[in-house]
């Protein structure tokens, strides 16, 4: 196989997940039956394909007037499995960002494996595939046609794989966001090392008590009176005695100061 099927009027984009899906299913299958199923899919024989938790249903038009009913069943994951998967994927920012953007990173398959789950069926033997046609082939061309169209639908929406395992896209992404919040699934507490985690929020000041007298509600106390004279800082007083030897230093610097400024030096402390 070179890629997924092409449903009528749709181009097969051959994403890695749809290719990986059908590569797993075609192992050990009869190539001739798969080819006939591909022709059925390309001719628009598959109708009303619907993915739900644990089962894919479709109607496939065969040689008879009434379409055949195809069912593809695989085990659903338990709630605990989804919680562990969501926590593991949410803990990787790159995986989380790509999943929230509607993509399926290749590493997600490995995460499923490490947690003891299968993102893709390992083969046709992992599915309970039934068809109402009289052909007992494995698979019959109607089942093969439904698998090809399912692979094409996965090109558009890889989350159909998760829906088949028991988790709709919205519910899965909601769980991913919940596990990504600080404090874990319940959202309580702060993540270790989070900014401002130890900084207490300042308490808001208590509002003033309302007056008991209703008439006083519309009155306000007089503002405080301003001082008659503006406050000025007291001038700094130089009261310390000059250090020993200061007089000789000032006498030595006086001619230099006079030459540079052309003025007499300012009067310093009494010496």
From TrEMBL:
Keywords: Metal-binding, Zinc, Zinc-finger. The keyword Zinc-finger applies. Residues 177-247 are annotated as: Disordered. Residues 202-211 have a biased composition (Pro residues). Residues 120-151 form the SWIM-type domain. Pfam families: SWIM (PF04434). The lineage of its organism: Bacteria, Bacillati, Actinomycetota, Actinomycetes, Streptosporangiales. One of its GO terms (molecular function) is zinc ion binding. It comes from the Bacteria. The keyword Zinc applies. It comes from Nocardiopsis composta. This is Putative Zn finger protein.
